[in-house]
Design brief:
- The protein has 257 residues and is α+β, with helices and mostly antiparallel strands.
- Helix content is 37%, strand content 20%.
- The strands form two sheets. It has a five-stranded antiparallel sheet, covered by helices on one side. Strands 6-10-9-8-7 form a five-stranded antiparallel sheet.
- Helix 6 (158-172) runs parallel beside helix 9 (241-256).
């Protein structure tokens, strides 16, 4: 960990999403983060070689996905589908839960997660959907819009979230309102009204019971375009907050490309 820490700026700026450089270094050592996630690491240090081999992040994600898969396979499919807003069907001799994540259809079977009748190999998709299914949140939407920082233990993520999510959308669609509207509709966005006043408000379904609200303000003579993303305060009942933060950032990556 010390060798990793030496490569970091040691300023505890929090821009990586962790509160301190020490915490970040520990996660890199444990293959929970990549050293490139620090915006101040020099290119020559980005291929850090440790003294002993460690599991890669992909190895860790794969392990977690299979652990969650084992749990999700044992849930009562009919009860779980009702609790999470998914569909339930018995097809070809097996139970299935159907749902959409970021407007893409998936099926949970006793054999695992499927996308277009093919077993899903994306560890993050499996982690998020299995966690969502096993929790069976069941809590009604509150109608209270909150930012990611509202949820417990997310304070260190706020700066990184603003940079990696909200600012990306604002920059991408600055002066391109028609492009924004088209992209919203392509990802299943529905024009909405709510607690905020904005030039454009769209609601998306990250998962059936996890709506995302995008508020976008066009640029004017004084300010550039800006964007804020909101979630329903019930989201923490349905999914681990770390996974939720990743899911929102994944949505943004898809949205701006």
């Amino acid at each position: 960990m010390i060798e990793i820490y030496k490569k970091l700026p040691k300023t505890n700026c929090g821009e990586c999403g962790d509160a301190t450089c020490t915490a970040f270094a520990l996660k890199v050592m444990n293959s929970q983060r990549r050293i490139q996630d620090c915006p101040y690491v020099a290119n020559k240090d980005s291929k850090l070689k440790l003294n002993k081999p460690v599991a890669t992040m992909d190895d860790n994600y794969s392990r977690v996905s299979y652990e969650l898969e084992a749990v999700a396979k044992r849930v009562n499919f009919k009860d779980a589908s009702a609790a999470i807003g998914g569909g339930y069907e018995f097809k070809d001799g097996e139970e299935r839960i159907t749902l959409k994540m970021i407007n893409k259809p998936y099926e949970i079977r006793r054999k695992g997660l499927y996308e277009k009748d093919t077993y899903c190999l994306d560890s993050w998709s499996k982690i998020i959907i299995y966690d969502y299914v096993r929790r069976k949140g069941g809590r009604p939407l509150t109608g209270e819009w909150v930012t990611l920082g509202y949820f417990p233990n997310t304070a260190s993520h706020v700066k990184a979230f603003q940079r990696n999510a909200e600012e990306k959308i604002a920059i991408k669609f600055n002066g391109n309102k028609q492009g924004l509207i088209i992209r919203c509709k392509e990802l299943g966005g529905v024009a909405a009204q709510g607690q905020m006043k904005a030039d454009y408000i769209y609601q998306f379904g990250l998962l059936p019971r996890i709506p995302l609200y995008m508020c976008f303000w066009e640029a004017d003579d004084e300010f550039p375009a800006s964007c804020k993303l909101f979630l329903d305060s019930s989201a923490e009942d349905y999914i681990d907050i770390e996974y939720l933060a990743y899911l929102v950032e994944r949505f943004v990556e898809i949205f701006v490309h």
